[in-house]
Amino acid sequence: MSKEFQDMLSPINWERFDTILLDMDGTVLDLAFDNYFWRELVPGVYARQQDISKDAARDVIYELYSGREGTLEWYCLEFWTEQLGLDVLALKKSSRDRIRFLPGATDFLDAVKAGNKRLVLVTNAHQHALELKKAVTGLDRWFDEFVCSHDFGVPKEHPEFWHQLQGKLGFDPATTLFVDDSIPVLDAAIEYGLGAVVAIRCPDTGKPPQNTKGHHFIDGVGCWV
Predict the structure, then answer these.
(1) Which pLDDT does position 67 carry in this prediction?
(2) Do 118 and 200 fall into the same domain?
(3) Whole-angstrom distance between the N-terminal and C-terminal Cα of the chain?
(4) Can you tell me the mean pLDDT for 115-138?
(5) Which of 14, 142, 149, 192 is most buried, most CB within 10 Å of its CB?
(6) Strand partners, 218
(7) Which residues lie below 8 Å from residue 193, measured CB to CB, with a gap of 6+?
(8) pLDDT at 182 over 60
(9) Rounded CA gap, 25 and 68, in Å?
(10) Residue 62: pLDDT above 80?
(11) Per-residue model confidence as pLDDT tens digits over 12-37
């Protein structure tokens, strides 16, 4: 990260931004929950339901996953409930104790709130998943608004999402900071013209840092406080 960009994002220069857009999973909340859910819990439950091995269940499920990443279906609980014959929302609720903030995230949110910035959570998560995580974590305490891509009919990876988001929020791209852990989403935000776009390098506390593919990055939002 260049010194110029570090200076722009340092605490003493937050007046440059009036709107902060934050992703949820992998930016504010630990992506370890979602990775456990889709890669461990769901295959295990599916294996028991179908009376097959967990490895065989993974083969079936990963084939269903294939090619859908970055589409609205990828994030849709109702779609996966239908595809897998499992009550996906009920499974999420059963494992809700694993939902937690990333290190330092609440301190960062407190600091942004104290700075009187407009703080908006912008997520691809399904509405039911968002409501569950709000109930578990109390995200309402910090965020002024919540935007779910399902309400727009397109995911954050799609250019149309950003046009609809700007129409809904009326933000100025030049004075808006956006933080996300998804490289395709960050690419779309840059293409739209947001003034500052930052990647999260450590979205999952159980995994090594990711390659941010040339994006300006920070290990986690907690590093800013």
Answers:
(1) 84
(2) yes
(3) 17
(4) 96
(5) 149
(6) 200
(7) 173
(8) yes
(9) 18
(10) yes
(11) 467 889 999 999 999 999 999 999 99
Q: Are residues 92 and 113 in the same domain?
A: no
Both 93 and 105 in one domain: the answer is no
Residue where a domain stops, chosen among 43, 78, 97:
97
Q: Which domain holds residue 69?
A: 33-97
Number of domains in the chain: 2
pLDDT of residue 11: 44
DSSP state of 58: H
Which pLDDT belongs to residue 15?
80
Q: What is the pLDDT of residue 225?
A: 86
Tell me the residue type at 181: D
DSSP labels for the chain? --HHHHHHHSGGGGGG-SEEEE-SBTTTB-THHHHHIIIIIHHHHHHHHHT--HHHHHHHHHHHHTT-TTSHHHH-HHHHHHHHTS-HHHHHHHTGGG--BPTTHHHHHHHHHHTT-EEEEEE-S-HHHHHHHHHHH-GGGT-SEEEEGGGTTS-TTSHHHHHHHHHHH---GGGEEEEES-HHHHHHHHHHT-SEEEEES---TTSPPPP-TT--EES-GGGG-
